[in-house]
Design brief:
Elements (H helix, E strand, L loop, with lengths): L1 H15 L4 E6 L8 H4 L5 H4 L2 E7 L3 H11 L8 E4 L2 H8 L5
Parallel strand pairs: 1-2, 2-3
Amino acid sequence: TLTNKKETVNAIVKLCDGKKRPFLADLRRVKNLDKKKAHCSDSSRDVAPISAMAMLIPSLLSREIGAYFLGSHKPMFPFRPFTDENKATSWLKKFIK
């Protein structure tokens, strides 16, 4: 929900303590995603602490759908979908400063 999203963003901002950090979003158990809520936020506050985002998704088909979706909405940071958690974390380590 929008309330959950705001709470999550506030927690991320607090945890990052003013520093940009890589972010791993695990969506492997998400059953239904509203297109309007699926967009990466355009708000600079929402993305301010994120240096890069890896998104864990359940299947290669989901990856293709995500790539198509992102073609029309570019996030303000490097973004990549993954089905393998180890590959996702390896990729995110490049963004730790």
